[in-house]
């Protein structure tokens, strides 16, 4: 962010040449998912149907409340943390709903409210930025103008606390932005159905030949012989990784009564390490009394056959 009013115009040109490098040529992966709220002893997930595609994720929850009276709770759904440095995996527009998040309860659309957070690694620096008057979301022309007007003392503090990098007259934020969408929901005694969909932020690699088929990525995504055979021809389909946070289900009461997982392979094929406790079905995997021990990572190969 250049400290003048020209910042919003010139930023893509200047920052495109200084995008951060990633190990093994892989862009960062941005998992999202898992509705969360304070733990409750009387609300459980009776069923979860999770459908993952490289371009859309859909999940249907059936919650069951054993409370004798309706309970009103605030539910949160964390979107992925996204860098704001104009790297290839950063923001491409000014939309706070950067993953096209949608939610419905018992078949009716619900409006959610995004709450903004700033992360430097695993440290939440939202309060520090608010204290300094620095916009948490720094990907709009308005934010650039606000940053251009920051006092020199604030700029000096940002640099001293290593919250920004400097390139000539430009300040580059080092923190990632995250929106957590929240809504208030009533759980009546018995079952409540919640449906969520969003467009994932996926990662990629430019070292296709060494990273996946026979390299480090093979173990991360459990590439089997069928997938390796598809990769052995002349065609080189583009790999994309999609993450989904499963472990937040532990915030609810007990295991997931029934869990169903399906991978949607539109113009693509996929590989993943199937979570422990799931067995293969006709079009996916399922399990009962499922307790997720790890989050889910799926590797899609787009454009293959």
Number of DSSP helical runs: 7
How much β-strand is present in the residues?
35-45%
Beta strands, count: 19
* Mean pLDDT reading: 77
Low-pLDDT sequence parts: 1-30
N-to-C span = 43 Å
Which structural class should the secondary elements be placed in?
Answer: alpha+beta
CA-based shape: flat
Main β sheet profile: 8 strands, mixed
The secondary-structure element order is HEEEEEEEEHHHEEEEEHHHEEEEEE
Lateral strand order in the biggest sheet? 6-5-12-2-1-15-18-17
Helix content range: 10-25%
Q: State the oligomer.
A: single chain
Give an overview of the whole structure:
- The model is unreliable at 1-30 (pLDDT under 50).
- The chain has an eight-stranded mixed beta sheet, with no helix packed on it.
- The chain contains seven helices and 19 strands.
- By secondary structure, the protein is α+β, with helices and mostly antiparallel strands.
- The chain has a domain at 1-30 and 71-187.
Annotation keywords:
37% strand; flat; disordered N terminus; alpha+beta; 305 residues; five-stranded antiparallel beta sheet; eight-stranded mixed beta sheet; 19 strands
């Amino acid at each position: 962010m250049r400290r003048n009013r020209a910042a919003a115009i010139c930023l893509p040109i200047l920052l495109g040449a200084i995008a951060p490098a990633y190990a093994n040529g892989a862009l960062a992966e941005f998992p999202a998912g898992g509705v969360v709220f304070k733990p409750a002893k009387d609300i459980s997930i009776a069923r979860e149907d999770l459908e993952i595609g490289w371009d859309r994720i859909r999940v249907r929850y059936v919650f069951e409340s054993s409370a004798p009276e309706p309970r009103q709770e605030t539910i949160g759904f964390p979107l992925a943390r996204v860098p704001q440095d104009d790297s290839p995996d950063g923001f491409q527009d000014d939309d706070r709903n950067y993953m096209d998040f949608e939610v419905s309860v018992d078949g009716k659309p619900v409006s959610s409210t995004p709450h903004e957070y700033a992360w430097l690694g695993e440290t939440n620096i939202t309060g520090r930025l608010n204290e300094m008057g620095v916009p948490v979301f720094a990907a709009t022309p308005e934010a650039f103008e606000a940053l251009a007007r920051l006092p020199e003392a604030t700029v000096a503090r940002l640099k001293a606390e290593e919250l920004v990098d400097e390139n000539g007259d430009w300040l580059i934020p080092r923190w990632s932005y995250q929106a957590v969408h929240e809504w208030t929901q009533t759980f009546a005694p018995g079952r409540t159905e919640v449906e969520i969909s969003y467009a994932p932020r996926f990662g990629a690699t430019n070292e296709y030949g060494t990273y996946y088929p026979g390299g480090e990525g093979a173990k991360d995504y459990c590439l089997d012989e069928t997938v390796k055979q598809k990769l052995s021809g002349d065609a080189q389909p583009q790999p994309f990784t999609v993450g989904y946070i499963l472990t937040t289900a532990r915030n609810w009461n007990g295991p997931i009564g029934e869990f169903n997982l399906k991978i949607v392979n539109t113009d693509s094929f996929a590989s993943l390490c199937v979570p422990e406790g799931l067995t293969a079905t006709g079009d996916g995997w399922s399990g009962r009394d499922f307790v997720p021990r790890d989050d889910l990572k799926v590797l899609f190969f787009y454009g293959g056959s």
